[in-house]
Fold Lipoprotein.
Amino acid sequence: MTKKLILATVLMLSITMVSCTTTPNNNTSSTTTTVEENKDSDSSSKTANDKPKEEAKVNKIKLSIYTIDDNSLEPNESSTIEVNENLSLEDKLKELSKTVSEKKFDKLTIDVKSIDTVDGKKVATINLADSGANKWTQKFQGSTGGAVTSNTLIENFLQTNNKSKGEWIDGVKFLYNNKAIEYEHVSDLSTIQYRN
């Protein structure tokens, strides 16, 4: 009789344990479904709410992306990017540096360090950074290669021929790994270059 009682108690406890673990799982999955449904309804309401914002006109300015002709070393506008006119000057330069890096310099790092006032003019300091692979130094080699690199960087940052850029910098200077650039074929990068 005692064995039957113990067996019955163990059986009842097992059934209770199984039913306790099954119930939370079912609740969890329904809770998960509810959370997922809420996420879906939130995202659809966000999308519906975002449409008027998208339709609100954001004033954009065009920045030119220049390619330098290997023979004449003259800049030619090869494309443009649009940036929000309300961005700070530094943020506009960062957008430009990202595009110039991707399109002209194999995604090498081009950092906007600062914009300072020098003799009453706004001068941007741009750092060309290598992570130990010296890939920038390859761009500084050779008279033609160095001239193309220099002119590409200078023209893209000064935007000299771009009349629709809005407020812009007056000059630009470049650093290589946060130090002055001392390579013969890119000597123009070692001094401040001003817009005409």
User: Anything to note?
Assistant: The radius of gyration is 31 Å. The longest helix spans residues 2-55. The beta strands are 60-68, 75-84, 109-118, 121-129, 171-176, 179-180, 193-194. Confidence is low (pLDDT under 50) at residues 22-48.
